[in-house]
Batch of 2 targets.
Target 1
Amino acid sequence: MDLLLQLLVNGIINGSHYALLGIGFGLIFATTRIVHFAYGPIFTFAAYVGWLLAGGLGLSVWVGLTGAVATALVLGLLSYLLIYRPLELRNAPVLVPLIASLGLYIVLENLVGVIFGTGVRVVEHLDTQIFFVGPVFFTSLHVWQVISFLVLGGALSLYLRRTRIGKAILAMTDNPEMARIIGIDTLRVSLIVFAIGSMISAVPAMLILLKDGASTHMGFAAVFLAFVAVVVGGVGSLKGAAAGGFLLGLVQSLGLWQIPTEWQNSIAFIVLFLMILLRPEGLFGVRTR
Amino acid sequence: MDYLLHILVMVCLYAILASSFNLLIGFAGLFALSHAAFYALGAYAAAITTTSLGLPFPLPLLIAVVFAAVMSVLIALPALRVSGHYLVVISLALQMIVIEVILNWTSLTGGTDGISGIPAYTIGSLRLDSPGRFLLAAVPITALCFWICWRLAHSPFGRALRAMRENEDAAEAVGKNILYMKVSVFAVSAGLTAIAGVLFARYFTYVGAQSFTIDETIYVLAMVILGGTANLWGSVLGAAILVILPELLKFVALPVDIADKLRLIIYGVILILILRFRPEGLLPEPRGEKAMFVSINAQEPVGASNDLFAGSKDNVGEVILEGRNLRKSFGGITAVSDFSIILKKGQITGLIGPNGAGKTTAFNLLTGFLKPDSGEIALRGKNIIGRRPHELVGAGLARSFQDLRLFTKMTVIENVLVALPNQSGDSLFRVFFKRRHVREEERENAARAMEILRFVELHDKAYETAENLSYAEEKLLVVARLLATGAEVLLFDEPMSGLDPTTLAEIFPVIRKLAESGKAVCIIEHNLDVIKELCDVVYFLDEGRAMAVATPEELMSNPELATRYFG
């Protein structure tokens, strides 16, 4: 029972992480229909810049976070402007931006290795608090993971609902063609979602850096799990992406009750597989046909 | 010397990987990112069967191929039911899981240590343990794999794959079994990839999980894109360039670690640049006459093809298709509430009604693209509810689409050819084992397709790419393609909208002639002049049901319907 409780808490913590990644990726995907694989290495890049500032140069964690967010922002905007935008203007088939994003993925991932070197980078001398609540234990970083999701998720939700540009984003999520017709500046909206989505990814990147350290390959898991969260939650729904992330975190974690750790990704795969089989439109998706 | 020969061996391996990947993404348009996973399955199957079981050649090869193909089908069946992005994510998941299994099932795969000591190939007493000797096995096996890809791609099956890539619904609407095509091309591609894996294991005599990561798939993807999608020589060229190019890096003094990363960065940059500036790749997909597998004499009409309209002219007025009390709703919205229709042989039936009346939904119900919530549909008295669209085309019921859905990147004649019924070349088995028969049939079919094009007067454009046609020509091609299915019930969704009077005058006789030759024709149409000119009987649809069934004259003199229609 105690174990189960601990796993449940772990599930919520990891779920927050996946949910945050999911809404960042999902926002970009739902609005622009671009499967932005480079989201993964941008996440990695952000973590390494965070490490450089907070670990390498010994500045404060907050400086590191600022650097990470700025890095993700710049890379996200550049990927849209330099890679995807020209393809969109040419009316390339949907698979073309996807393939281009894989190219970008491999470029950025290896660039990280060339610039920062391989091997795990950790920020040392962190004073992480450890909490015990009854039988359950967690650290202050875990708390931050949950808080960051609640704050950023809430802020994003308010932004989308309350502001003019947020509504334009939602309109474009609904129907890009129609959005263009009614005069929404789709270039501006696309840039904004790339900016927001990328900046969001920098926060979990920083937290993972502090928690486990950064490695050059960490981006693949990030973008893959974000993608799975979006598909499980229902393409086009940010609420779905968050729910998908939590479902993933919980199933993975509770699965450990019976299944050894090294099979965590396989559990994610099985959730995905069942979802696509049983409910292809996802948790919050709309069945189109 | 050995160094150069080693590069040649690598070119062979990647030529197999790139060609088989091209079948999937270039020809079939199936974007699966699990290529490296099947490469790994082949390599590990060979490693395990040779080391633990000690099986002799060619058993490991066969086992690897069958294993990868079976695995691909097991995974593909659910994944291929959904399309596009779902396939991407499912195949990515498969990639992850294969690596995870390899790393964690230590007793079988050696985990992170991998499997070493795989016996090299031997021919008689000659051990193929140097690059030069290994080429003795690699070259013929690569040639065989390439030949398999080539046969598959340059067959009616391959053409149907490209049609599916262009538009899945339209391919189904001309009678192609989409699921069969997807699953079989997936299996063939996986099987060939596994062969590359076996060669890998035999050449390096060692397999380890790090050789089969997602980066490997992207590497092969770059080769396919660089060489040209849907061009197999392109894949070989792409493989050669991307294997040789990074070797040049070796002449620059760089730390091994950096050089390796630089190599991958180069691939990524090439991939992006190609997509940006030459998306068709170095060797573009063959077009025009080069896209044909047989040559035909276009100038000379073939007498035998006159049977296009040889349907029996007896029993005009016989009921061919009957739909009764059909109902379909989407969520809360009822698109078709209670619709009944009878289509008779030799008659042209019109469907008119305001936008949103349910006309296209009615077509979708009748042709199996949608399943009615209730009601009955009978084709020549046989219940056809629940049957797939492609089966119905085979049974004699075909439709066109309002938004045309031509196979835009294929030639005009290919658009027609792909729609011809009962092609033995649609079956992969016959493509490989009844080659002469398929070829002869293809010759006849090509002549027949040309004849159909002549009938709609598009024969001069036979080798144009469909996307280069004018709007009126596209409409004619839609008619030609539907006609090619040979179905006796033809449903046209707005075949004449947006056409000028001259072109209309060209299409009228075509449709009339179809009815005269004994087809049951149904058209959705907005233009009342067209209805008056063509139709024997008209169904007026509104609010999801037939408000009236009458002759065009009766209908137009009905004031109530006129107000409904014109508002």
Target 2
Amino acid sequence: MTTQPLTPDAIWHALSTVPDPEIPVVSITDMGMVRDVAVDGGSVSVTFTPTFSGCPALHVIKASIEQAVRDLGVADVSVQSTLTPPWTTDWINEGARERLREYGIAPPAPAGHGLIQLDVEPTRCPRCASMNVRMTASFGPTLCKRMYVCDSCREPFEGFKSV
Amino acid sequence: MTATTTTLTPTQTQTLLLKLTVLADDEIILAHRGGEWTGHAPILEEDIALANIAQDELGHAGLYLTLAQSLGGSDPDRVAFWRGPDDYLNARLVELPKGDWALTMLRQFLYDTYEALWLEAATRSTYAPLAEVAAKAVREEKFHLQHTALWAERLALGTSESTRRIQTALDELWPYAAQLFQPIDGEAELTGVGILPDLSAVHARWHDLVTRHLHDKCGLILPANAEAGAGRDTHTEHLAPLLLEMQSVARDYPDAQDW
């Protein structure tokens, strides 16, 4: 095995192949969950932020990060989580938004700044792009999504909450 | 603008530890009551919604208890699963049996409104780690509020039966809600230095928001304001059986390493 110098870029690249356990078409870097990578000699420290505080996939994500870095031949890996700044769906990158749409999940609208509001954000059908949609359930199969139906193409779909 | 701090005096640390336990206990017990609807809610979507809400509340409890642990508190799982009814400090509001759908939704609305407003104020805490926790949790809480506010409206303006049920729930729950705004011993000192939100200010905002929604919009009659009553170490007969069920798996397998 050839030894390549360990760079943060190499670590970031490895982490970009770690799928989100609940939405496997996007990676944890696509989602903006990886906040920092630090390389100090032979040891690597990765800081990530949880999407939702009660997300049951957090320990899976932490273990996957460790494994991805170990697969580069790094023995000394530490993974920390941070709450600051709090994760926002605004960090989901453009490529991932397109893959979410193709997968049938409406990507999140811009999160905005009003933290406490009773109105819901606008959403577009991921199949026909119509905005003539109705929310059918304000919570969905995972903490980050809610359920809709499109009144133009009649398809039900999942939409990302804007957080 | 007040400077933020990350250092606390020993007295402040003890008070904050207690407050974090109080906050977590409310979340844990309410989450369990929400979870009791799993498989029993009127429709599948609502079953899922309540499970989601309960999961978020448990996540918030995890944030509070992890912060408490950093201040010298016990492991969050120990705190949740190995304390009995004499040690739990939740408000009586959240331990009442789940009742009917109207009671469950109205209780969640009264609680979510309080929690969202408290968290919003706590984002300005001068103790930076608490401000961080609040900033995380408040983003999730807005979805609960949207959901339960809509249910309160739907039931209040629905049929005569649904109106009767939610008014009955409001009459029953209203006196219990007052306890949420009762400060713990020493809380005033932490409020004075901006570490904790001023509960009386949160109470005033809560009362305003709840009145505008339940009375002005939904046409419900708000009962007369009640006293908070006995402290958080006093419970109804409903807490002990809840804990027995909630803690049974952890206590049956005390050496479990992996869940």
